[in-house]
Design goal:
Length: about 350
């Protein structure tokens, strides 16, 4: 057997092996991760808007709390001064009471009328002292209540600020990662565009959507009608793309085969449009993995048959658009998903 035949046999075996190993689970997981990422982007934007509203509300609440705090401090100062004055008055009355007691004891031996007068004066002083004590206790209770309210308000404000700071930190971290992802996608799109300049407008288009780069190749560039054997010019475009992907090792690659809605007249190993779309995808996958810098673990091959058309009009022009192979390039989202799961 010649060297060329051996090479073709080996390539066929590798193709069938890769075709059989393309797990629907890996494909769905990659799609789900990207969908979660975009949903999280929308959720974060909503969260950001809510946080902005929360910041404004906190600023307003903080102003109210500051005014209440100032009023409480002013009131507490006044009551403290009143407390000091009452304490001084109480001390004077206590001295007066002691003096009267001494006078009473001295005059017990005196006239009965003088004793009664002194006793009445003492009882009046005692009553006044009790009133002052009650006032002091009431004022002390009010001061304690005011102090508790101040402490509670400050604690609540501190807790709200801590919570807001934590959310802002998480949001900034996520926004930074999303910006990094978009920056990687932009740079990758430009690199792919530069590498495939000679093919654009000749059955190849490059677009960027939802943080992913889409390289779409029409069948006229890659395959003949009903065939999964790749054209020479299409193979050149795939190899140029492989060179770029080999240098960007953090990019995941999804190869999707698409057909039109004309039923495939099955023959040989191919039964219908499903088989044809999958086989075309794996043909491109095999060509990409000829570049040893591209690890097979980065690639997923999938067939979408006729069920994801660009144009559902059913016209010849629409069917031509729908017959395509899309290579979808996605930056590695592991770090971003870890941040999302952590929060």
């Amino acid at each position: 057997m010649s060297s060329a035949l051996k090479t073709l046999s080996l390539a066929a075996l590798m193709g069938f092996s890769l075709f059989s190993c393309v797990p629907a689970k890996q494909y769905n997981l990659l799609k789900d991760n990207n969908t979660k990422c975009e949903e999280e982007r929308a959720r974060l934007n909503k969260t950001n808007d809510s946080l902005k509203i929360c910041v404004r509300e906190l600023a307003s609440a903080g102003s109210v709390l500051e005014r209440e705090k100032a009023a409480l401090i002013s009131d507490s100062t006044k009551r403290q001064l009143a407390f000091v004055a009452l304490s001084e008055d109480y001390s004077k009355l206590q001295d007066r009471y002691n003096d009267l007691n001494l006078a009473h004891e001295a005059l017990l031996k005196g006239a009965q009328s003088e004793s009664k007068k002194l006793l009445a004066e003492i009882q009046k002083a005692q009553s006044l002292l009790m009133q002052r004590e009650d006032s002091l206790r009431a004022l002390e209770g009010q001061l304690n209540t005011r102090s508790s309210k101040l402490t509670s308000a400050q604690t609540q404000m501190d807790s709200l600020l801590r919570n807001l700071n934590e959310k802002n930190t998480a949001l900034v971290e996520l926004q930074t990662m999303l910006a990094k992802k978009d920056s990687i996608s932009n740079a990758l799109r430009q690199k792919v565009k530069n590498a495939l300049t000679g093919f654009e407008g000749k059955g190849l288009s490059i677009t960027q959507k939802n943080g992913m780069v889409y390289v779409s190749m029409e069948d006229k560039l890659l395959f003949k009608s009903g065939s999964f054997e790749i054209d020479t010019r299409g193979a050149d475009a795939i190899r140029e793309l492989a060179n770029v992907l080999g240098q960007n090792k953090d990019i995941n690659i999804m190869v999707e085969g698409h057909t039109d809605d004309v039923p495939y007249q099955g023959r040989g190993e191919l039964k219908d449009n499903w088989d044809l779309s999958v086989k075309r995808a794996t043909t491109v996958v095999r060509l990409l993995t000829e570049n040893k810098e591209i690890a097979p673990t980065r690639i997923t091959g999938a067939g979408r048959s006729q069920y994801l058309p660009i144009d559902a009009a059913g016209t010849p022009q629409a069917r031509q658009k729908n017959r395509r192979t899309e290579i979808i390039l996605t930056p590695n989202l592991d770090e971003l998903m870890q941040i999302i799961e952590k929060n």
